[in-house]
Fold these 3 entries.
Entry 1:
Amino acid sequence: MKTFLVLLMIVALGACVRVGEFTPERHAQYEMGKPDCNKTPEKCINGIPW
């Protein structure tokens, strides 16, 4: 039983190692909804998109 729990913890730790690293497609999808404040200043307040 202890061996199983140790292996389970190792697998869980291995799954968390790359958390926060996204593919370029995911970054592009995230940036898609944000306006460019230089091109469309009417969509920004003090340089911050809203």
Entry 2:
Amino acid sequence: MLDKRTHLLLRRIAELCADGSYQIVEERDLLACFPPKLKTDGEGLVHMLRYLSEHGYIDVKYAEEGVYCLSPLPEGRMYDERTDRERAEGRKRRLHLFLFTLLGAFAGAFLGAYLAAVVALSGGA
């Protein structure tokens, strides 16, 4: 499981290399994918690229003075697709949970009102 910064970097590399071939990318293009809250520097970027490369997510052909030749590997593309699919399934699950909770609440309220009406009409209470 990748941390948030590394996942954002992997996603950016996949976007830049959409056709699956090697692309020459400058450091500033890669650093632009991080929001201000998760800002990182060139040294952090190098560590993340090394981690992605060592774990088979990307291939780094060369890295010289802030210029990189990168390509996402199949494992890297599958990771991004898998996390997107899991996120969509989570949203779908929460929607189902919400709808069934809402349906149960309405059914319980209706049944309670019906029983109260039956008791009141039968002369009880």
Entry 3:
Amino acid sequence: MEALKHWYQSERRKLRTLSRRAKAEYIWQYYKLWIIGIVSLLSLIVYVTVHRLTVPADNWLYITFANTYAEAGNGSELWRGFVDASGYDVREKNVYFNNSCYFDPSDTGYNAYYTYFVAYVEAGTLDAIAMERDDLALLGTRGRLLDLSGTEFATRYADRLVYAVPANPDYGTEPLPIGVDLSDTRLVADFHIYESSCALGLSANCPHPDAVARFLDYVLSDGAEVNVS
């Protein structure tokens, strides 16, 4: 403590002998890293505070559009169209479309994007993932997608189901419905998120299946209002 007091007094004496411009140059030369660090920390605090106060913490819906460079994220035409049609109030909760995810479902090596995908599935954050149809079928073998057997999805979209045989025989040896084929829907025809084939699978821990159903209604429709009652 005494050393700090001595340093402070010594610096004050130095600054007294300098002109205003010389003081500024001296402080910047010797303390710029501290200044930059403090300003950065304050900026981070302000950002986090504003983010927490203005951005809803919960989601209406969280969908990942994997392996595409098309505009499919928040604020995109797809996002705006669905939000408008569904009537979801994004000031109350988020509708989050993530289009920054790239991984090959057939590759069992480490991939950061796949790791994030698994983490979001396990955390119960991710509702659904869209990919090219064959890729989704491969992903379905890895046990991260919901088995649609016996669900309303299997009944409602019976002619669109995508099947996969689990890689782990403990989960069965017969093909299971793990996705809905959307190759002939607005995702391809209007929004060009994928150019040829497309399918959507629900997360194994999907927290908002009703919202996923509303999204499917939207992309299978002509863009008219979606019933959210």
